[in-house]
Amino acid sequence: MSIIAKNLSKTFDGGKTYALKNVNLTIQQGELIAIIGLSGAGKSTFLRAINGTNPAGTGDLQVLGVNVPQLKTSQLVGLRKQIGFIFQQFNLVKNLTVLQNVLVGRIAYAPLWRSLTGIYSQEDKSIAKKALDSVGLEGRYYDKARNLSGGQQQRVAIARALVQEPKIILADEPMASLDPKLSEVVIEMLENINRERNITVIVNIHVLSLAKKYAKRMIAFRKGEVVFDGPPSELTDEKVEAIYHVDKKAMDEL
Ligand SMILES: Nc1ncnc2c1ncn2[C@@H]1O[C@H](COP(=O)(O)OP(=O)(O)OP(=O)(O)O)[C@@H](O)[C@H]1O
Ligand SMILES: [Mg+2]
């Protein structure tokens, strides 16, 4: 089992805002899941909870066999080694080469002196190059990250997650900075990774058509609660309307 959430809740503003509310979910190893919902619905909070980045809320959250809210910092390091995170803004070091950026994903496997000095083993370099080849960036190893297009930078970020040899990849709106064509390339790549390597992939996505096309399971959050959980075929227009409906009170508050 990859992830089990039981009555998981998380509040902000001294309990006034529910970012997650009584979330109950079971996610099997190897699933590809798209998370949808309005801005502020709790999508990023859910991913951060899985990664142990949020201060603990209430309820249980088992990830790869450990209960995340109870982990000490040192144990969190062990968990995060198994979880790749891909961000909207790529989070590359622009001044480093493509290869160096990907090698960052090997840090958890390198002895401390190596990661401090930035000297990586031949084996790590070869793993990193293979990952770059697998996302179509062969021949770009020594380019500075800043000289790549947005879509290419996001592929570097995917390669960096891959060399971690993760069991789970969490992607928080990875195509939000990309044009529609590149967005599709990125989700296609995530789908490939999921299928070929049996990595659980959870992707927050605001393009509904792409989510429906690629994910086998969709989970919708609204005000922190799971309001839909099922295959794209069950996501009717009425359900979409309920997920994305902006009520008058919320509009007035904008
Ligand atoms: N660090 C924080 N401090 C205070 N409130 C927060 C914090 N992080 C999240 N929240 C609140 O929790 C709720 C859920 O936020 P979250 O970022 O998870 O939403 P989201 O679905 O990812 O939205 P978006 O689509 O805009 O990225 C929101 O009401 C948000 O304001
Ligand atoms: Mg978010």
Short description:
By secondary structure, the protein is α/β, with parallel strands linked by helices. It has helices at 43-50, 73-80, 98-103, 112-117, 122-134, 150-163, 180-197, 208-214, 237-244, 248-253, and strands at residues 3-12, 17-27, 32-36, 58-63, 66-67, 83-86, 168-172, 200-204, 217-222, 225-230.
CATH superfamily of the domain at 1-82 and 202-254: P-loop containing nucleotide triphosphate hydrolases
Q: Which stretches are poorly predicted, pLDDT < 50 over at least 5 residues?
A: none
What gross morphology would you assign? globular
Strand order of the largest sheet: 6-7-8-3-9-10
CATH topology-level fold name of the domain at 1-82 and 202-254: Rossmann fold
The tally of helices reads: 10
Q: What oligomeric state do these chains adopt?
A: single chain
What is the H/E string? EEEHEEHEHHHHEHEHEEHH
Helix vs. strand class: alpha/beta
Overall mean pLDDT stands at: 91
Let me know the number of strands. Answer: 10
How many angstroms separate the termini? 40 Å
Which hetero compounds are present in the coordinates? adenosine-5'-triphosphate, magnesium ion
Q: What's the CATH class of the domain at 1-82 and 202-254, please?
A: Alpha Beta
Q: Sheet with the most strands?
A: 6 strands, mixed
The appropriate CATH architecture of the domain at 1-82 and 202-254 is: 3-Layer(aba) Sandwich
Q: Name the beta content range.
A: 15-25%
Q: What fraction, in percent, of the residue positions are helical?
A: 25-40%
Whole-angstrom Rg: 19 Å
